[in-house]
Amino acid sequence: MTRQASLPPIAVIGAGFSGTMAALQLLSVLPPERPVLLCERGGSFARGLAYGTGNPAHLLNVRAANMSAFPDQPGHFEDWLARGELSGKGPDAGVAATPAGTFVARGHYGSYLTELLTGAVTGLVTGPGGPRLRLVPDGVVDLEPRAGGFLLRTEGGQAHGVAGAVLAMGNLAAAAPRSRHSLDPWSPEQFGRLHPHAPVLVVGTGLTMLDAVASLRAHGFAGAILALSRRGLLPNAHAPTPTWPIPDLKPADFASLTRLLARIRAEVARAEAAGVPWHGVIDALRPLTDTIWRGLPPTERARFLRHLRPFWDVHRHRTAPPAAATIAREIERGALTVRAGRLLAVEDEAAQAVVTLRLRGARAPERLGVQAMIDATGFGHLAQNRDPLLRRLSERGLVRPGPFGLGLDAGADYRALGRTAGEGAGPLWVLGPLLRGVLWECTAVPDIRNEAADLAGLVATSLDRAAAA
Ligand SMILES: Cc1cc2nc3c(=O)[nH]c(=O)nc-3n(C[C@H](O)[C@H](O)[C@H](O)COP(=O)(O)OP(=O)(O)OC[C@H]3O[C@@H](n4cnc5c(N)ncnc54)[C@H](O)[C@@H]3O)c2cc1C
Question: On the CB side of 52, how many CA atoms lie within 13 Å of its CA?
């Protein structure tokens, strides 16, 4: 193939961790003639939802040792941290060394990613057609199929012809708020407007709830917090754990959920007899989780989602020990109450929402006035999604909901699957938490970094083939 001066770019939509890593990996495998457009509608590139926080109590929930951005350089983030003094952060600020490992403020991780991206933008990678990495600080609202690629349109009215696109837009946003007193856990600056003592309800008791409590306290809220979820389970904390070998699971072990559970329980018993806590077994399962998820029959996956998911989440998605200690202190002094139950109804009044709750073990529903409700239940479904790009792609039949309505559907090659079963959407790929129904383990750095590298290779091969055809 004769190379042109410049080939149409590939677009990456969303510049959180997934989009940033997809862009960097693409730059390393695409020919220099093929630019990468990295599009972001939020205020800043690289940080995304997770790493834009300036609250030092918002710690990474994964050990620093496992947070390298690159699969082939496991010590990359720790080396960056060790150089921290050079960039003026000081070695101790926002760095908690615990017996279970070192946990760092998420804002520092955002600075690490920003440095990686800035390095790529400032001329390290330039092609014949100009800079190879072009930042587009605008929301993408449409991808219109055109000439084997797409015409990408932005909120601000820009249009770019692109050879393909990677959707790295993070989790689907939650459904519309249930009350006009609802607050978004991801916009904690709103918490500063709260009355310091009137009660607040947090719906959800997972990692987002822990974050919300830290944000409420950082914004001067001193009152009572009730955290409610179906099971009332709190995330476990990381613990010092020797490594445990990857369990030798056979396909027969995940033919049913009951068998799988029995097999994992037996593995935990064996580990504990050898002095390794359950944490080691859960960590050892990580490389197998996708195989297990794909191998479980659909009825068993549905059973998992209905019954077991909250238990799995609190064991698998653990929190940093200092964050767990803060929550334990909140509970001990009676400032935070964590309950199992259901939110039955919400009635808005002028200054408060009156919520009706059925708490587990209570004889009758209970009504409670709260000045604010924070929805920390997680994320939404494609059908409820209000994002203009996803709506358009959905209307055009270019994407469809993933298995069990989780995220988007995609093939093993990360290609989005469209309305008709088996029909690929063309040069459109998906990365990150949007793949939840397909991959299961696709929401955290240690998985996304591998997936970004894999995806970049597949995109490069596909674009090369298309250019040669
Ligand atoms: C609070 C929190 C803490 C976490 N902590 C950890 C941790 O400690 N360790 C870990 O491994 N994982 C952690 N995670 C998991 C996290 O999901 C991943 O690490 C990673 O940040 C996911 O990044 P993302 O780019 O896929 O999504 P996001 O960070 O959500 O980024 C998506 C980006 O896409 C942009 N976007 C969306 N739609 C458009 C559009 N149409 N046009 C242009 N831009 C668009 C958004 O503005 C956003 O910036 C955490 C997650 C959260 C929410």
Answer: 15
18 CB less than 6 Å from ligand 1? yes
Q: Is 40 in the pocket of ligand 1 (CB under 6 A)?
A: yes
Among protein residues, the one whose CA lies closest to atom 53 of ligand 1: 50
Residue pair 102/96 in contact by the 8 Å Cβ criterion: yes
Pair (218, 349) in one structural domain = yes
Given the CA of residue 138, which atom of ligand 1 is nearest to it? Answer: 43
As a dihedral over the C-alpha atoms of residue 93, residue 97, residue 101, residue 103, rounded to 10 degrees, the angle is -20
In the structure encoding, which two tokens stand for residue 72, read together?
């082939």
Question: Given ligand 1 and candidates 18, 44, 49, 389, which is best to mutate, with the most ligand atoms within 8 Å of its CB?
Answer: 49
Task: Confirm or reject: Cβ of 455 under 6 Å from ligand 1.
Answer: no
Phi, psi of 438 (to 5 degrees): -90, -45
Helices 17-29 and 106-119 sit at what angle, rounded to 10 degrees? 30
**Average pLDDT of the residues in 346-352:** 95
**Any domain includes 246:** no
Residue 199 near residue 352, CB atoms below 8 Å: no
Q: Report helix, strand or coil for 81.
A: helix
Query: Do 139 and 186 reside in the same domain of the chain?
Result: no
Please say which residue of 358, 375, 392 terminates a domain.
Answer: 375
State the amino acid at position 240 in one-letter form. Answer: P
Claim to verify: residue 49 and residue 128 sit in the same structural domain: yes
At 467 the pLDDT is 78
The residue-averaged pLDDT of 374-381 equals 84
Return the residue whose CA atom lies nearest to atom 37 of ligand 1.
169
Q: Separation of 277 CA from ligand 1 center, angstroms?
A: 30
Beta bridge partners of 154: 140
pLDDT tens digits, 106-147: 999 999 999 999 988 876 555 555 678 999 999 999 999 998
Q: How far apart are CA 467 and CA 434, in angstroms?
A: 28
Tell me the residue range of the domain where 423 lies.
Answer: 10-173+381-468
pLDDT digit string (tens) for 214-238?
A: 999 999 999 999 999 999 999 999 9
What does the alpha-carbon distance between residue 28 and residue 453 come to, in Å, rounded to a whole number?
Answer: 9
Retrieve residue 121's tokens: 């933008």
Tell me which H or E stretch contains 353. strand 353-359
Does the C-beta of 388 come closer than 6 Å to ligand 1?
no
Do residues 89 and 109 lie in contact, with contact meaning Cβ atoms separated by under 8 Å?
no
276, 409: one domain? no
Confidence of residue 1 (pLDDT cuts 50, 70, 90): very low
> In sequence order, which residues have a C-beta less than 8 Å from that of residue 286 and are 6 or more positions away?
441, 446, 447
Is there a single domain that holds both residue 311 and residue 349?
no
The residue to which tokens 């995609």 are assigned: 410
Q: Whose CA is nearest to atom 48 of ligand 1?
A: 48
